[in-house]
Amino acid sequence: MKNPISLCTLLSAYILFSAMPVSAADEDERHHNAHTHGQAKLNIVLDQGELFVALETPAVNILGFEHAPNTTTQQAVLKQANITLSDSQNVVQVTGGDCKLMAQDIDMPFTDKHQENSEVEHDDHEDHEGHTDVHAEYTFKCANESLVKSLNVSVFKHFGAFKGIDTVWVIGIHQRKLHLTPDATKIELR
Ligand SMILES: [Zn+2]
After folding, report:
1. Which residues contact 108 (CB under 8 A, 6 or more apart)?
2. Could you say which residues of the chain have pLDDT below 70?
3. For the chain, what is the domain count?
4. How far is the CA of 170 from the centre of ligand 1 (A)?
5. How far apart are CA 75 and CA 18, in angstroms?
6. Which of 28, 92, 121, 179 has the most other CB atoms within 10 Å of its CB?
7. Whole-number pLDDT of residue 173
8. Angle (nearest 5°) at CA 129 between 123 and 132
9. What is the whole-number distance in angstroms between the Cα of residue 126 and the centre of ligand 1?
């Protein structure tokens, strides 16, 4: 079974295996938010001058639907969503550290790219109830890691369906969790 390991998977593993006591409440929360419309997950790792940002969200938050587009309006929504996510500024804005975007990977369902990647394996992002996720990953190179001060999660502004984003960020040995909402979009890293 061909199943390439994505950065997202690596990040999740990194965060899962990081030394951090996990309470029963945390476990409940994690399961509860596996695919909940309106909610999403954001993983952030700052390490050795590189800043990784991975957004995992139900497609409905981005597109308003989770099936192949069947109207010209839905096709246009899909196209526009791809364009919006392709500009990292529309997802996260980094303050401090002189960080420049080096790479990005937008895994959008119902697009040519997604189908190419999903020839053999699929269901990675689609469960049996017909739900579909969108993954967007960004890698920044920061000239001065110690000066990376904060991140503003701008995805709320560009996609109104986001009601909450469970955020985990890791800097070196430090790990924090934060629940962002449309009224609280800023992550202070220091
Ligand atoms: Zn869904």
Report:
1. 62, 78, 81, 82, 85, 114, 134
2. 1-33, 113-129
3. 1
4. 28
5. 40
6. 92
7. 86
8. 50
9. 9
3-state secondary structure of 183: coil
Q: How far does residue 149's CA lie from ligand 1's centre (Å)? A: 34
String of DSSP letters for 51-116: EEEEEEEEHHHHHS-SS---SHHHHHHHHHHHHHHTSGGGTEEEESS-EEEEEEEEE-TTSHHHHH
CB atoms within 10 A of CB 8: 20
Domain that holds residue 29: 7-188
The verdict on residue 22 lying in a domain is yes
- At residue 115, the pLDDT reads 56
107, part of any domain:
yes
Between the CA of 123 and the centroid of ligand 1 the distance, in Å, is 13
Token readout for 140 is: 């920044």
Q: Is residue 2 part of a domain?
A: no
How far, in Å, is the centroid of ligand 1 from the Cα of 102? 31
Residue 1 lies in a domain: no
pTM value is 0.79
